Amino acid sequence: MTDPALTELLDLALEAARRAGALLRDGRPADLGVAATKSSPIDVVTEMDIAAEKLITGYLTDFRPDDGFLGEEGASSPGSTGIRWVIDPLDGTVNYLYGLPTWAVSIAAERDGERVVGVVEAPMRGETYRAVLGGGAYANGNALRCRPAPPLDQALVSTGFNYVGHVRAHQAEVAQQLIPRLRDIRRSGSAAVDLCDVAAGRLDGFYERGLHPWDLAAGDLIAREAGALTGGRPGLPADGDLTVAATPGVFEPLQAALEELGAWHD
């Protein structure tokens, strides 16, 4: 990577994610409870989500006070530099609340609307995933590459479920119809980790309806830089209707199956 501007953004994202990950790992209260809810009573926010986002935005602002922010827990400002940070301070909050290990800090940087840097810090795995546009993807310094494509019926695919009842009911119907066409389905509880697992060759594919920009910004870039294909419905980018990421050869048949099953709507 030779662009010094991207080097700066990557270094800042790595350090902010490391600090937030350490706070979440080492500072989790034994009596951690729900601080607020979002889309439904089971879509929760903890005090640690809020603290981690405050840490990240404060750290980045110290070095780049005029950049914009989009954060899950409310950080939002347009900025004036063309750089916007897209932050999920704790992806996998319910896992974290229950003491399960699959959660991560996700930080992406956009330049003039294009994602150029992505970092996903997974402290309980001891892994830091990173990517720069055009520079490849890495985990703890090791280059990532997605798996060679199997036939769809031998593909291991992960998904996630919404916290709104009628949405998740339809998602369960889609999964029920999709499972016989695959090797199996996994559900980790963290879209950021799932996208990185596609990049690392631990999954052949991933799909989910209802993701927000902060859920997928960093992981999408990491997956693409590892050779995966990403998108939404056929011909569209990944968005809130549908996000699909998979190794080439699995992506198109998986996307087609999801289109057939109506995975983007109730």
From TrEMBL:
Gene Ontology molecular function: hydrolase activity
The protein's required cofactors: Mg(2+)
Signal peptide positions (record): none
Enzyme class: hydrolase
SUPFAM superfamilies on file: Carbohydrate phosphatase
InterPro entries in UniProt: IMPase, Inositol_monoP_metal-BS, Inositol_monophosphatase-like, Inositol_monophosphatase_CS
E.C. code: 3.1.3.25
Hydrolase recorded as keyword: yes
Keywords: Hydrolase, Magnesium, Metal-binding
Swiss-Prot/TrEMBL catalytic activity: a myo-inositol phosphate + H2O = myo-inositol + phosphate
Superkingdom per UniProt: Bacteria
Protein family membership: Belongs to the inositol monophosphatase superfamily.
Name by which UniProt lists this protein: Inositol-1-monophosphatase
Species for this entry: Streptomyces stephensoniae
